[in-house]
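Researcher: Here's my situation. A collaborator sent me these components and asked whether they could plausibly form a single complex. I don't have experimental data yet, so a predicted model of the whole assembly would be a useful starting point for our discussion.
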Amino acid sequence: MKRFNKTFLTFLIALMPLLSWAQIDGEFIKPQGGKFLLQNATVHTITNGVLTNTSILIEDGKIAQLGSNISASDAEVIDCSGLVIYPGMIDGGTTLGLVEVNSVPETVDYQEIGNVTPNMQALTAVNPNTEAIPVTRVSGVTTTLAVPQGGLFPGTAALINLVGYTPDQMYAGFKAVVMNFPNSARRGRWDRRSDEDIKKDNEKALKEANELWEKAKSYNELISKGAELDYYPEIAQLAKVVSGELPLMIEVNAASDIQNAIKWVADKDAKVIFSGVKEGWRVADEIAKANIPVITGPVQDLPSRASDRYDAAYSNAGKMANAGVKVALRTNDSENVRNLPFHAAFAAAYGMGKEEAWKAVTINPAEIFGLQDQLGSVETGKVANLIVATEDPFETRAQIMHVFINGFRIPLSNRHIRLYQEFLDRSPGLKSN
Amino acid sequence: MNMKKRHIFLALLLSLSLNFSWAQTPKGSVLIKNGTVLTVTNGTYENTDVLIQDGIIKKIGQNLSAPSGVTTIDATGKYVMPGIIDAHSHVALDVVNEATSPIVAEVRMKDVVNPFEIGIYRALAGGVTISHAMHGSANVVGGQNATLKHRWGMDDPAEIIMQDAPRTIKFALGENPTRVHGRGNGQQPRSRMGVEAILRNGFNEALQYKKAWEDYNKAKSQKGSTAIAPIYNERLQTLADILDGKIIIHCHSYRADEIYMLINVARDFGIKKLVFQHTNEGFKVAPEIAEYTMGASVFADWWAYKFEVYYSTAFNAAILQKNGAITSINSDSAELIRHLYHEAAKTQRYGGLTDEEALAMITINPAKQLGIEDKVGSLEEGKQGDVVIFEGHPLSSYAIPQMTFVDGIKYFDIKEDADDQRQRISPTEAVEPILLSEEDHRCMQDTEHLFETASALFQMNQ
């Protein structure tokens, strides 16, 4: 007996390294590349209608095949019967990845010092490992525009796919110089400036914008004629807008400012996108006539004026779309970009309709970014950004079953889910044993 | 006028004024026909009618006929649910924080209610009939809150206060009180240790105050007593009322440790009426919250906007609910208050709650936490006639509230919504304010000046 105990003890001691290994239990699931066959789903292509009993083959990060009879013996088969597939959603304006905790300045990287800093690159400050990315992508949002904030020209925005370990791996192929169009409105109840002062401030800001534009034009002309110029990174970046190399994304919201911005860009040969456009519904026809695409949102937002109908922000996207404006949606959020499908649902319910709302988070932003041959719909040859869900992902009760980004199968886990797993049935519970 | 006539005249005047004050709080009658009735507490009934008479739900059943003079509304194909209750709001308050001391139990939100705030109407448009208008979170013990009934159009603040609701008071733990007092003013609390000390010191002082009054009252009844009354102190009296169970505590809290601390303090002082607000880490101490308190009122998915909410989960409400804690979903926002039905629906994405559990989080559960569950929070005969009619199931993302009733009176009808909601025009400010970012996260409103002072001092010392 004694001897048995000794043997047992020795055995236990021999096991100890193994026991300590057990501290790191549970395999960490990483995004997984490879060849996948999503079988027998109802596919909402966005651009080519709804296809029933359809399968999708994902290979080399792309949608390789789409059809009813795909054989691929070497692909991992994922049964999608009874499930729906949509293209990954695109959020046209966020600070996701540029901030970790908003009230902790050390973690806020979306804003630089200075009024004219168009050369600040949002892509540089994207943290591929932010806790908010896994939280976001399990909702089916696969692609986001990282937008710098601040002064007149705060920086250059960049489109990212929510998979990858470096900004370059994430980069989705679109950048734009951001401009905050001078605001002619009272900025809030606390803004006690006189009407005259508001006008003066606005004129001053517009004057500055015009001067900068003229500088950028000269810079571009001189460069194109082979001149060697002093290092002037701000104007060098703006010159790329003048030359058409980069689009100009103008944040503009008050109705009168939208009208002014339409006038301002009319004689400038630049690719222009409007963002925000909170009062777009007041001047929707004019935006449509100017043929300027719009990225608007958040949809779940208060009206801009106390006198507005309560649903002014809900119905804005639909009113613009109905007037003929190309509309994409944004959350303008960081940690809750996951709510994009719900913003889209509100836009759909308040006048936009489901079909147009889906376009506003898929093919429309893809077209606005010039990436319509890569993103925004389920089509052969496009990047495999896909959502597999139990039902319409705009519904809160829908469960997202699979997400693919750049062809990578995304683990459906994040800290929110891990905390749920740990604490739903806590151990120890109420008593300590 | 002789003496007798004058008496009659005065009596008439008095009765007129009484009638007038009764007439101030309007109560209505309406028959809502053929809807899908979501009672929340007693199941769901299709093709069912709800009859409200003089502000009270008289009858729920089929084939009811309208008594004469009572309007009938056809709700065929629509959903009828109890008025939504927001257990955490700052809508209709002119100011939010009295940030001058770690304990300001004496101030009352009912003194700063503004019945003209458009936020009330917007909340009605989201089906919200009752909101808990709370003091801010700058103090460990904040002011006393007001429970509001959204009777839009009343011009007397008293008419939108739910007079039959019990008293509640705001407490706050963690970053906000330590920031305002410790960092802003260089006084306790600077840490979560200090927060506990403020509470224990405050309640002990209140016990002494209570005893002084009890001693005095005892001595006073003695023959030939020369006892002198203690000096009345509204702050300490309010804390004593909490100890006596007359006031429900609603405590702003985020981290599990501070939640657990307040439970322990409450146990030590025999305080039973305690609700946690925000409670982002409530899920970590869900069994303790369920065992001892009146539950938690939480956000559906807010996190990461400050460090103490970085380790949050959108599954919080589901975990609390499944551990048996009374759980409600609140807004704390003039924006979110307009779609609490949608916020509640998120508990189905995050935790798979049933329709009934999700709807309870914005109706009967917040009613319990405000102590008004015998009056509102479900569709039951005898309860107050606060009702919303929805196009689409209220938990669908595409749902749109159509009509909202308070006490049987219709205060919102999507078909009668005006394009211009303007109530007044300023002759000096023709340029209307355009609010581009929400001005509505108001828990810390009116405390900025404290930080300006602090940062100025900081720079001077540099």
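Model: Some features of this prediction you could bring to your collaborator: Chain B touches chain A through 65 residues (CB under 8 Å). Residues 18-22, 453-462 of chain B have pLDDT under 50 and may be disordered.
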